[in-house]
Specification:
Radius of gyration: 13 Å
Number of helices: 0
Order of helices and strands: EEEEEEEEEE
Distance between the termini: 37 Å
Largest sheet: 6 strands, mixed
Shape: globular
Structural class: mainly beta
Strand content: over 45%
Strand order of the largest sheet: 2-10-9-4-5-6
Length: 113
Amino acid sequence: VQLVESGGGLVQPGGSLRLSCLASGFTFSSSAMSWYRQAPGKEREFVATINNRGTIRNYADSVKGRFTISRDNAKNTAYLEMNNLKFDDTAVYYCRNPGLPSWGQGTQVTVSS
């Protein structure tokens, strides 16, 4: 199993970023996918999840209405569109197949003025 996150960076408050997660080593189109994040000094926390067909999405309350999870099964890729970013969104963002123990290396998102 390999998960490669990308798209992170430095952004000002109110800005936007789009994260990508390229997956391999399992049947992507049959698997739910999730995003998590870990801020400095804090535990890793759930951000969003999407079912295998992309028809059901769930979000943490802290990101609801600002973040959108999506996927492209033809590209084995999951996405996290992040809008109206806040200082508290600063973290390393990870994707994972919730049915497997593997994690990617993560991508850093820093919200700073």
